[in-house]
Amino acid sequence: MGGASLSAMPGSEQLKGNIEDLDIRDGKSESEKSYVYIDGNMDSTPHSADDAPGYGPYEATVSVSAAEKWEKELLEDPKNRLALSALAGTDPKTVLTQRSATIADTQSFNIKISLEGSPITNQHSSGRCWLFAATNVFRVAIMRRYNLKEFELSQSYLFFWDKLEKANWFLEQILDTTDEDLDGRLVQALMASPVGDGGQWDMVANLVEKYGLVPQHLYPDSFNAMNSSTMASLITTKLREDALILRDLASKSPNPRSSVGSMKEKMMREIHLMLTLMLGPPPPPNKEMTWEYYGKDDKFGSLTTTPLDFAAELSSKETVEANRGSDVHELFSLVNDPRNEYGSLLSVSRLGNVIGMRGVRYVNVSMSTMKSTCIAMLKAELPIFFGSDVGKWSDSKSGIMDTGLIDYELGFNIRLGLTKAQRLMTGESAMTHAMVLTAVHVDAEGRPVRWRVQNSWGEGAGSKGWFVMTDRWMDQFVYQAVVDPSFVDQEVRDVLKKEPKMLPLWDPMGALA
């Protein structure tokens, strides 16, 4: 993610200015000086044959003499020697950050929900962004229902049950693929990350339906929730070992599941033990808990309920009315995948967490449909869970996501011209992070200019935890928005009734935020 600010790097601003003064782009028209070419309307070929340097005939190997020639010609140009001084000793993202973008990308918006939810949350050193984004959407409905100034749901509660369910899901997939080669792509994809921290909207919906919700202070983060790598590594190692045992036992029986029941139960019990010791025992889903709180008027309140009933309350008449008529249990995912036909239902084979519950479902739509739906929801005071590739052309310190933020061609004289579809096809991009939209700024014609983003990296990132995303960045790097069905046309809702196109487990749409 983003490096240090320019102000923290002595001389880097001056060096950047000198590069610009020397104009490393000699001979180009003004229209060619927009260096990071990531326009989704570009043709399918990132570079034309005319761009190829004329260094001689085709060579299959790397020529030392050619490399020496390239270096000599490169360093004969004073612009490149200056670029070397600037870029070799500093993070290129810092040197090439465009001041104009940092000035233009402000935290000001003309459409903004009045209750965004607070405090800013912090997932720390874990991959739980999807759980934070989802609970940050859920909490707004709860805060409206109980007139709360601040509120946070327990992400660790869902994290515990997700890990246990993913372990079971993994073992079931292993038993279901015993006829596949161990070194085949499918089994290796399953083995790659049996209990990764990431997830998707439908997966959190499964957890909430089966286990409910808990206020954060009734099941706070343990050390291993905030720093999950050791726990994940240990459980992954154990599950890979268990997978080999199950495959071996299953190979000796005509009915694998009937012959490994007691062994699988032992394996699951061991995973449960590890989770309990590292995260702490969670509140039982069907046993009563007492939540005590203060409202905005400092009036004390108390609610005795179960986690399951607390979650079910989100669909009650009182909560739905308080939440501007929206039932958060009815939300579903729109995605923008330009590789596939718009108006189609997409799913991912063998991706999920809870056996017997829903898999991942995506309604594939154009970006214009996705954005118009998001604007309508924000006008109706509703926050939006969304998934994106957060590391591209962004800076975590300033909290800016803008395709014009970092001018790589200025420093390297290269063109970066992949389309959104090409990034997906080549593994260059995927959903890597989930956050929440709470505001948008639109121009006089109602077209979005920039979006306000609630992140889960604590108040030290961005503007006290808040990020700003340009609409150009959204077009290129946002893949998903979770929306209320009442804000889309019937034609879009009907897509949910279709048979899904099943994408393979390794497809980028199977990436877990």
TrEMBL record:
Record key words, sorted: Cytoplasm, Hydrolase, Mitochondrion, Protease, Thiol protease
| Active site (record annotation) | 129, 433, 455
Enzyme class (EC, first level): hydrolase
**Subcellular location per the Swiss-Prot or TrEMBL entry:** Mitochondrion; Cytoplasm
A Gene Ontology BP annotation from the UniProt entry: proteolysis
Is-annotated flag, keyword Zinc-finger?
Answer: no
Q: What is its main location?
A: mitochondrion
Give the E.C. number(s). Answer: 3.4.22.40
Q: Which GO terms describe its cellular component?
A: mitochondrion
* Gene3D superfamilies (alphabetical): Cysteine proteinases (3.90.70.10)
List where Basic and acidic residues composition bias occurs: 18-27
Positions of the UniProt region annotated as Disordered: 1-27
Q: According to its UniProt record, which reaction does this protein catalyse? A: Inactivates bleomycin B2 (a cytotoxic glycometallopeptide) by hydrolysis of a carboxyamide bond of beta-aminoalanine, but also shows general aminopeptidase activity. The specificity varies somewhat with source, but amino acid arylamides of Met, Leu and Ala are preferred
Extract the InterPro entries matched here: Papain-like_cys_pep_sf, Pept_cys_AS, Peptidase_C1B
TM region(s), chain numbering: none
In alphabetical order, the GO MF annotations are: cysteine-type aminopeptidase activity; cysteine-type endopeptidase activity
| Pfam families in UniProt | Peptidase_C1_2
Subunit info?
Answer: Homohexamer. Binds to nucleic acids. Binds single-stranded DNA and RNA with higher affinity than double-stranded DNA.
What this protein is reported to do is described as: Has aminopeptidase activity, shortening substrate peptides sequentially by 1 amino acid. Has bleomycin hydrolase activity, which can protect the cell from the toxic effects of bleomycin. Has homocysteine-thiolactonase activity, protecting the cell against homocysteine toxicity.
PANTHER family in alphabetical order = BLEOMYCIN HYDROLASE
**Family membership noted in the UniProt record:** Belongs to the peptidase C1 family.
Name the UniProt record assigns to this protein: Cysteine proteinase 1, mitochondrial
